[in-house]
Structure formats: structure tokens, C-alpha cells
Write a structure and sequence with these properties.
2 copies of one chain form a homodimer.
Chain A lengths: L17 H6 L3 H15 L16 H22 L3 H11 L11 H9 L2 H12 L5 E4 L15 E5 L4 E5 L7 E4 L8 E10 L2 E11 L12 E5 L14 E5 L2 E4 L9 E2 L5 E2 L8 H30 L21 H38 L5 H29 L11 H13 L4 H4 L2 H12 L10 H6 L18 H24 L7 H28 L4 H17 L4 H5 L5 H30 L3 H4 L10 H11 L12 H8 L1 H18 L1
Parallel strand pairs in A: 1-5, 2-5
Antiparallel strand pairs in A: 2-3, 3-9, 4-8, 5-6, 7-8, 10-11
Helix pairs in contact in A: 2-4, 3-4, 5-7, 7-8, 7-9, 7-10, 8-9, 8-15, 8-16, 8-18, 9-10, 9-15, 14-15, 15-16, 16-18
Chain lengths: ~675, ~675
């Protein structure tokens, strides 16, 4: 038995190389990662091995998360961590913490939707955690369809207050993160009513718990939501919340845009697009971080499948074949490495662009690019969450039976990743915005205004239609050939969508594949542009990134996310064959020449991966035996109180047969 | 707020109609279902609402399962339930029970692999639960590759015993169901060694726990395995087991086939195929029951999506649209209803055929059909587990955010269904047996001997190659057109596979899609034959079954399980369009005319579905609020012991700022 993990090098601390700095998004980000990693991995409160979360009661798992939240608050306040660092530290704990919304959706709403006076009062309170914030939008009866939310905020002129109410069961705020136990203040989305007139949804900062006692405020009825599917999101206390004539001062309606004056006059917002803002922020963050989720799963799968041996490829071989050398593993795993890389690299670009825009926009009030960012982040959210959740589960399955052990970590990763497919907008619902925008701009010939739709012009002028004569294998690596194929596929799908819409068909199903195809193109383009920049700089890792790009580009063509994407690009068999050959060659090339180097450059640590299949000082078998089995809370004598019951059960037949005999005897006597 | 569930009729007890008897596989099966349902749904020990399993510690959830196992044993012994009824009752509990292997893999091995003398001794013990059985094959280091298992059973002539040993860490028996706490006897797969000669794997009935105390037997080292991914299989105590010179009498080697005489003479088995047997049995059972898992998920999704309203299809409408009326829901859900039906109906045929064969084979010793059943059940296992696991998760996602609540039940369903993708043989590994058989019989022109490969002859004589001129929509409903398309697709994939094999390529990845395409055809053919029988009998439900068949056939063509299946059937756009139109029309027709009737005929009860989204007396919103939130173990004052910690955390900034000021003052003074 191997006593160590051989040449599978699994770092304890982040390892720094120029390539890893590039992949992690630059020196600043890399250093932040290292600092956070240091602070958490070496602090026993954040230990990932001290407690086996999937074994304990949910309440106990949440308690642990609440104590971690407290410790993280201490760290932030004492060391002056940035909001970003705080957010990233929460992610590193993996199971979410109750304080998670504080610097995501809570703060971003205060920031974007409050007037300057309001900000001066509330932001310091939020920043120093004097209040714990949440964001209450979703109701039992309405998710994506925000317009039909039922909660009301009625203006009471006499007391200069709003009265918040939940008029129906279906208006119960539901799924509200951190609200079940933790939060003291919630930004409540409610219909503004003044003199019975409905002014639509506005945001109201509502105190829900007493700051000194944590008891519910009068009229606020809250329940924690109960467990989530797959044991997901253990650290979040979601809430179900109803309001019964809850009064808040007029000054707590978020008033950067619309306002209500003391006499009840409604002052309209200058800009209608402002409401996009907070969703765009959250989705921009999601676009990048889901890529990291996928890459961690890929890394665990890599470490395990390059350890595990099974069968012999060639029967004459003495030793068994390492499973990563089988096409069945390689062809599942390596495209996911390339896709994860694309999600992260292109996702970082989106976040960077949006951050720059935001800073500028807060100064100038110029919202002109917001629609493009909205579109980009919707597409990115749908694309990245689909690929990641599906990819994480593919990694687990590629590890075979042992992937099903909770300590492999894949279950936790999937539970937390797949959640994003239906939250912050169900993918099938929000995904419809992409085709809608495509249609609008195609019709109006306005795609020039939106960088992410630039390909529409090429579709319109028909330049995509001339089929290049593709030579075996090599040609598929040419970007112009890839672009031709991606545009041809999109052109076909867009035309079909135009036709369907004209025919009055319900396109809510087919939209999804179109959104994926659109995003394939957007990500391909983003990755390609990034590679072009690198080609000029010629860093030492150019070859690795090029190899990742090839696998990404060819996998979205050869093995698209949905069968209808394959149907939309019906290549002649000869071209299909050459595409497949090019794809397989790109996968083989990456596997043979760059895989180990790329995994090393990402350098996920033992702490980051949190998997028994990837321990620095133990093989997966040692870890599965020692951590999985020997430490099981049901091992040894721990269930011995049930032993007499089992022994007794095995003797039950005697009693039952005995009783039957007796009965028989009795009947015989009668 | 609606106080009831309107026209969503969710039964408390199984409802009987001719259609439901047909779907459930005949009167006997239906009656058994009803009896078991009665026994469990009305017995508080089996209540599914008394305890929220995903909230409690795993140990407590298992304890509950152990007590249920005891009660089920009592029911079986007292009421003389059949083994099948017992097995089905375990399934109805949903989370598996420790006693689960008793009448599946344990008994089926005693039955098939023991000599008559051995059976006379052991089967009564197993039947009356005097011993608790398990089956120990998988090791830490080997799953599908049974040949390389490392556990040894060395014959000791002097004592007429075998000595069982685990020579390495990787030889630890791992994942062994029911072995962590419960089992007293295990059928151990080990290499037989006689005078240092290795005779390969044989089965050894080994006592692992004392019958009177439940303590481990000398030399047996067992640990329970720890939690599983997604909180799956809560009722199973899997074990990790090592043997250190464990002695068993020679009479406990299972000796129906091979035998060891007291002088150490090895008597060869008459038939080499005998070892297939137990896997074939288990997989045959799996093929049918996974279909039921899918159908239950479909039913829950149906009940929820026909209650939930969101947005308006037509903006002028007053009320919102029921979400099942959107193509995005319909096109995901209805093909799954058809696929689930195909899995069950065709799966029942496989089990029936195999059962008949087994009875006959035990008498005659004729193994000639075993290869075909092996092939059928491998294909069915891969096909049914892939479609079911993917389908259950699709149902959850189609329910949007509320599907992520643990009480929706989808999480539990997925956790338990997806397990089957990697157990009893990893799908990517065992799936390779199908293409291997195709190749062998295609080369040898022996497909005539295997009914499930009959299509190879048509491929060989080229009769599939002439393309029919397909008329819009209607023609795709013709079975001969469907068969043409399925065979054309298969022909292309088989040819590619032949070419790849000839080129020495590693086909372990592409095999999987070929297995799915092969199974598409096998299930299509099976469903079609069944429909032909019905067409002669003309029952009242013929139209419904026909509608299900159309959706099944067109969905496997239009929306295949893997993109490469779409590539292998590159239809001209006109044919693609007509296929899609036919598919959509079939889905619409089923949705509009038969959906409610089919769901009613399946008639899953509230107890069977076990979902807050499908309660007989509550709407999903009422159930999510009352059962999910109001009953949450973290609601109310249950976390009040943590309130002072939270209050204190919100005041932390004062202390830290205070300390900083003091420090500043100190420095100023210095």
C-alpha cells in the first residue's frame, strides 16, 4: 500500500507561480486568496475536518456556521478586511454563513438604492455589523415575476409612516436568506400604496428583530424554512416572513430614485432601469464564482482518477491502468477543466467591466450600458450555473462509487452549486431575456449598441453562410473556422426563433438552448480575445492557455450542452469526423502535455477542496478508511444501545411460531 | 387563498381502474401494492411526516430505519408476506432499511449458489431472520473489476476450514450494505487458494457478528462507512470490513457450482456463466423499479406545476398562467412521463421473462439464454438509471425554487436514484458490455441467437439505408418511419464503433452513447410490441397508451439523451422541422387530452409521493408554510440559546473601536 499520495501533489498552502497568478486573476486577487486562506485554514473554528457536517443534525451544523460568522466578523473588524475579502472568506467556508447577504445583496441595495442621507446613516451600521441585513423579495407565490408580488406598504400620512402587510398566504416572504434566525433588518420589496393608488414595487428597510434581545418586532411573524434538498446550504437560515401592520418611518423607504414626500406626493424615479442594478451585481459575482466551484470539483476528480487504478487497457500489462488514462474519464474531465477556465477568465472580465461601469455610473448617472451588462450577466448566470452544476455531478460520477461518499465532497459541491440554477431567477425564465434582446436588436438593427450581440450583423449580411472547405483535424483549430461554425449554428437557431415567434409559438422551452448557444459564442469570443492579448505578451504559460482554449472551443462544438445545438449544425459526416478527431486530439494533447501543469497552477489546497479524495498526506483509500469509516459516528460501540433490539428481532420467529402452535393446540382442543 | 387543492386530486389510498391495473402490471401486483400501502401508510412507525429526516442527525435517521426494519420483519412473519412483498415494502419506506439485502442480493445468492444441502440449512434461517445477511464484494480498491479483488480464502486441510484474510488496505470490503451495524452473516467474495494455487473468486458465507450479543466475531474488523452524498440512503449502514485470519468451516463455501473436497480437490463448476446470475437478478429488479422512481417525481412535478401560476402568457389575461401550460414545463415533463412509462412497461417484461427463465433454468440447468438476459439487464440498468436520475432532477428544476426545499422530496428521490448510476457496476464501465456483444455478434453473424440484437441483421443487409420521403408531421407517427430513423442512427454508430475498434481507439467514452442508442431501440421495440398486443385487445385506455408511445418514440428521436445521437442522425432541415413539429404535437396532444387521466391512473398516493408539493388536504403553499416553516426545528424560540451571542456580536465593533482608541491614547501619551 502506498503510504503517501505519490506524485499527486496536493498543496497545504497556495503555491505561487506566474501562471497561477494569471489564472487567479492577478496579483491582488491571488494575495487576497492567500491571506484569507491563511486566516481560515489555520483557525480551528473554521476546521473542515473537526466535524463531519453531513452526519450531524441541521441545527448543529447551522450553529457551527453562526459561530463561524461571529469569528469572521471579528476578523474583519480587527484586521480591516475589505467587503470583498469578507465575501470570499464566506465562500471558502463552503456551506454559507448566516451573515452571507450582508455584503452581497443587502449592502449593494443600500448602496444603489438609498439616498445619500440614508446611506450616511445606514451604511456604517451595516459595515460594523451593528445590524444584520437580509433582502426580502421572493414570496411563496411569486419568484421571477416580481411585478405580481403581493406584499403592500401603505403610506400613513398622519404618522409619516409606511404600514407593511402580507395580505395573503401566498404573499409570505419565503426563502429569505439569513432571516430565519439571524437578521435584524430586511430590505422588503413591497407594493407602494398611497391613497389606495398602487405605485408598484419599492424597497423598504424594515426592522424585524430587536437589537438588544433578538426577539421579533411587533407584527413580524417569522419561521425558519426547514431543510434544503441534498442537505444544501447548511449555514443559511432561510426565513418565511409575514407582516401584520408593521410600521416603519417614511425615511426607511429606499429613496435614491423614487421618493414619497411627507404630504404623500410621489416623486418619480429619474431612471427606470435602476431596478436592474442589484440583480446585475449578484449575477456578475455568480458568473465568476461558479467557475471556481466547477474547477474545484475537476481538481478533486483529477486527484482521485490519477490515483485510482482499475482493469488493464492492454491485457498483457502487469499493473492496472490509472483510470484517468481511459477515454471515458478523460473525455468527461478535460473539457470541464477547459470550461471552468473559460467561466472564470471570461467571468472575471464581466465583473471587472461592471465594477468599472458602476463606479463611473454612480458619479455620472449614465445608465446607457446597463442593458448590455444586464444581458451579459443573465446569459452568464444561466450558462455558468448550468455548466457548473452539471459538471460537478459529472466529476462525481466519473469517480465511480467512491464519489457517492459524503466525504468525497462532491455532494456538498453539487448541492450548493445547483441551487443557483433556480435562484436569483430560474434559468428557464430569466434565460428568455437573451432571445428577447436578440429579437429586439435584430429587428431594429441596433445590435451595434450591444457588444455581446455583435454577431447579429454577420448573420444579417449572410457572411456566415459560405461553408469553408475544412481539412482534416488541423483546420478546426483555426479561430475563423470555429467562428464560422458557432455563427452558423446561432444563425440557424435565431432564424428558427424568429419563425417560431412570428408563428405565435410558445418559445419558453427552445429559448433555453438558444441562450446556451449564444453564451457559447460570447464565452468563445471572450476567451479568444484574451488569448490574443496573451499571444502578444507571450508568457511562459501561453501554450497551456492555448491548449485550454482549443479544448473549450472544440468541446462546445463537438459535444454541445443540448442535442438541439447539434441538430442546428448538421455537418456532413466527413466534417463531423474531422471535428471529432480534432476534439479528441486536443483533449489528448492537453492530457498528455499540460494537464498536470494546469492543475498545479490552479493549486487548490487541501482546505479549499475539502475532500477525502484529495488529502496532502493520505491516499484516497487511507482517507476513506480512516476518516470515512474509522471516524464514523456509527462505528464501534456507538450503536450498542440498539444491539439488544437486533438480537431480540432475530428471535422473533420463535415467539410467532410459538404463538401459532399454541393457537393450533387450542383449536385442536376445542 | 384556496383552502384545498382544487382539481388536483391526490389520493390517500390507491385508486383502482382497469387502466391503473394495466400500468401497475396486473391485478396481483396492484393488490400487493394496495396491501403493502395499507400496512405501512396506516402504521405510525412508518409515518413519513412524524419526523423530518433531513433535519435530524444521521444516526437518529438510521435508528428509525432499524426500528422500521424490525416492524417489517414482524409484519412479514405474522402475516406470511412474500419475499417480493417484503422487498416492495422496503422500497415504499424510501430511505432503504438495514434489512434491505436480505431478500435481494443475500437470498438470491443463497438460492443460486448454494448446494441443496446448504440451502436446506441456511435458507430457513434467512427466511425467518434468524440471521441478518449482507453481500461483500466491492473492495476499497476494486469495484467493477471483480477479477482483481484481493480478499483471500485459504483452504486449511487440517482443520477442514477456510481462512479469510484482507491482505492490504485496498482489499478492505467497502460499501457493504447493512454491514456497518446490522448484519450477522455476509457472503464474502474472495480468491480461493488451495496449496497456494489461486482458483479465482468464490463465495464464502461468513459469520461476522455474534447472534446473541451482536458483537463482532474474532478477527472481523468492521466500521460503519459514514454519510453518503446528498444525504442519500439514510437507512443503510454501509460497512468497511477487514478479515484477520477468520475461520469458517469448509461447508460454508457456496457449493452449487464449484466445490472443494475435504482432501483439497477442487471440483470445477459445470457452467462458467453461473456467476452472472446474482447481478442479473439485481439489475432486472432495478430496471423496473427505477421507472417507478421517475414516475413518482413526474407526478409530484405535475401536481405542483398544475397548481402554481406565474406570469401571463397573454398580457391581457386577468389571471396568471398555470405553469404547466408553458412549453418550458410541458416539454420537460411530458417526455419524462412517457419515458417512465416505457421503463416500467418494458422493464416488467424483462423481469417477467427472467423470472420464468430462472424457474426453468433451476430445473434444467440450461443457461443458453443467460447471455441475452445479461445483455438486456445491463442495457436496461444503464438506460433506466441514467434516464431516471436525470429525469428526477429535471422535475425538481422544473418546479423552480420550491423544488429545492427538502420537503419537496425531490432531493431524497435524486439522492437515492442517482446512486444506481455508479453502483451494481458503474454505467460507463458495465455499459461497455453492450457494444462488446454487438461487435461479437455482428462479426460472427450470430445476432439471431439474441432477440435484443435482432436489428443487426437489418443493418447488415442495408435495408435501413433507403430514406423514406417523410411527409410533414403525420409520417413520424408511423412505426416504420420511427424504426427507420432509430436503425439508421444505430447503424451509423455501430459502423463508427467498428471503425474505432479496428483503429485501436479507446472507445470507453463513446460506448456510452451507443449503449443508450441501442437501449432506445430495445425499449422502443418493447413498447411497440406491447402496444400491438393492446391494439388487438382494444381496452378503453388504448388511446392513452398510444399517446405515451408517440411521445416516447418522438422524444428519443428529437431530443436524444446525448448530442452524439443527434449527430448520428443528421436529418435535412425539412425533416428536422417535421420531426420537431410531430414531437411538439404529440406532447401537446398528450398534455391536452390524456395527461390528467394518466396521472390519475398511476394514482400515486400522498404517502407514496411524500412531498409537500403533493398533499391531499393542503395546497403546496399551505404545506410549505405549515410543514416546512412552522414546523422547522429552528423556528420559534428553539435557537434562543444563541440570541445573546448574536446580540453580543452586534456590539463587537464598540469593543474593538474602544480597544483601538485606548491603544491610540496610550501611544499619544508615550
Amino acid at each position: 500500500m502506498a503510504s503517501g499520495s505519490g506524485d499527486r501533489k496536493i498543496p497545504i498552502d497556495p503555491v505561487i507561480t506566474p501562471f497561477s497568478i494569471f489564472l487567479w486573476g492577478g496579483r491582488d486577487k491571488f494575495d487576497r486568496r492567500r491571506d484569507i486562506h491563511d486566516a481560515l485554514a489555520k483557525n480551528p473554528i473554521f476546521s473542515k475536518t473537526a466535524v463531519v457536517l453531513p452526519s450531524i443534525a441541521r441545527k448543529d451544523a447551522w450553529t457551527r456556521a453562526a459561530l463561524q460568522a461571529r469569528e469572521l466578523i471579528r476578523l474583519k473588524l480587527e484586521h480591516g478586511w475589505s467587503h470583498t475579502a469578507f465575501r470570499e472568506a464566506i465562500r471558502l467556508t463552503d456551506n454559507m454563513l448566516p451573515v452571507q447577504p450582508q455584503f452581497r445583496i443587502f449592502m449593494s441595495n443600500l448602496d444603489r438604492q438609498m439616498s445619500d442621507e440614508q446611506k450616511a446613516l445606514w451604511i456604517p451600521k451595516a459595515e460594523r455589523f451593528e445590524i444584520f441585513g437580509s433582502y426580502a423579495q421572493t414570496e411563496l407565490g411569486h419568484g421571477s415575476n416580481v411585478r405580481d408580488l403581493e406584499t403592500t406598504a401603505t403610506f400613513d400620512r398622519e404618522h409619516d409612516e409606511f404600514i407593511i402587510n402580507s395580505p395573503t398566504l401566498s404573499s409570505t416572504k419565503y426563502w429569505i436568506g439569513t432571516t430565519g434566525v439571524w437578521a435584524t433588518h430586511s430590505i422588503v420589496v413591497a407594493k407602494l400604496l398611497i391613497d389606495r393608488k398602487n405605485y408598484g414595487n419599492h424597497l423598504f428597510l424594515t426592522q424585524i428583530r430587536d437589537l438588544d434581545t433578538q426577539r421579533l418586532m411587533p407584527g413580524v411573524e417569522i419561521y425558519e424554512l426547514g431543510p434544503k434538498a441534498f442537505q444544501g446550504m447548511l449555514g443559511t437560515d432561510n426565513g418565511a416572513m409575514q407582516f401584520h401592520n408593521v410600521r416603519i418611518p417614511r425615511s426607511q423607504m429606499l429613496a435614491r430614485n423614487a421618493q414619497v414626500l411627507s404630504d404623500g406626493t410621489y416623486v418619480e424615479p429619474k431612471n427606470q432601469k435602476h431596478s436592474y442594478g442589484s440583480m446585475v451585481t449578484v449575477r456578475a459575482i455568480m458568473a465568476e464564482i461558479t467557475g471556481w466551484d466547477l474547477l474545484k470539483a475537476v481538481a478533486v476528480c483529477y486527484h482521485y482518477t490519477s490515483f485510482r487504478k482499475q482493469f488493464r487497457k492492454d491485457r498483457s500489462r502487469e499493473t492496472e491502468t490509472t483510470v484517468i488514462d481511459y477515454a471515458s474519464v478523460k473525455q468527461r474531465l478535460i473539457p470541464l477543466l477547459a470550461k471552468g477556465t473559460a467561466l472564470v477568465l471570461v467571468g472575471q472580465n464581466v465583473t471587472r467591466g461592471y465594477d468599472a461601469y458602476t463606479i463611473n455610473n454612480l458619479k455620472t448617472g449614465d445608465f446607457s450600458q446597463l442593458e448590455d451588462f444586464h444581458l451579459q450577466t443573465v446569459g452568464a448566470k444561466v450558462y455558468s450555473t448550468e455548466i457548473t452544476s452539471h459538471g460537478v455531478e459529472t466529476c462525481r460520477i466519473a469517480c465511480g462509487g467512491h464519489g457517492y461518499h459524503a466525504l468525497s465532497g462532491f455532494g456538498r459541491m453539487y448541492a450548493n452549486a445547483v441551487n443557483a440554477v433556480t435562484y436569483e431567477g430560474d434559468n428557464y425564465v430569466i434565460g428568455q431575456q437573451v432571445p428577447r434582446a436578440i429579437m429586439k436588436h435584430f429587428k431594429n438593427r441596433t445590435e451595434g449598441s450591444l457588444p455581446s450581440l455583435s454577431y447579429l450583423a454577420r448573420i444579417r449580411d449572410g457572411s456566415e453562410s459560405s461553408s469553408p472547405s475544412i481539412q482534416p483535424e488541423g483546420d478546426w483549430l483555426k479561430p475563423e473556422v470555429q467562428q464560422w461554425a458557432l455563427e452558423k449554428r446561432l444563425a440557424h437557431m435565431v432564424s428558427a426563433h424568429i419563425e417560431d415567434t412570428a408563428d405565435g409559438r410558445d418559445t419558453s422551452y427552445t429559448c433555453h438552448a438558444l441562450t446556451m448557444a449564444h453564451s457559447d459564442f460570447v464565452y468563445w469570443k471572450g476567451f479568444r480575445e484574451l488569448l490574443q492579448t496573451l499571444e502578444q505578451e507571450r508568457p511562459a504559460y501561453l501554450e497551456q492557455v492555448t491548449s485550454l482554449f482549443h479544448v473549450f472551443a472544440l468541446s462546445i462544438l463537438h459535444n454541445p450542452h443540448h442535442p438541439s445545438l447539434a441538430q442546428a449544425l448538421p455537418l456532413p459526416f466527413a466534417q463531423q469526423r474531422s471535428l471529432r478527431a480534432a476534439h479528441d486530439a486536443a483533449v489528448e494533447n492537453l492530457a498528455a502535455n499540460h494537464l498536470a501543469g494546469i492543475i498545479e497552477a490552479y493549486g487548490f489546497t487541501e482546505y479549499e477542496m475539502d475532500s477525502a479524495l484529495a488529502r496532502a498526506d493520505k491516499t484516497p483509500y487511507e482517507a476513506l478508511f480512516e476518516e470515512g469509516a474509522k471516524r464514523s459516528e456509527m462505528s464501534g460501540n456507538s450503536m450498542s444501545h440498539l444491539w439488544p433490539m437486533m438480537v431480540n428481532t432475530r428471535q422473533m420467529w420463535k415467539r410467532i411460531e410459538g404463538a401459532r402452535c399454541q393457537e393450533g393446540n387450542m383449536q385442536a382442543k376445542l
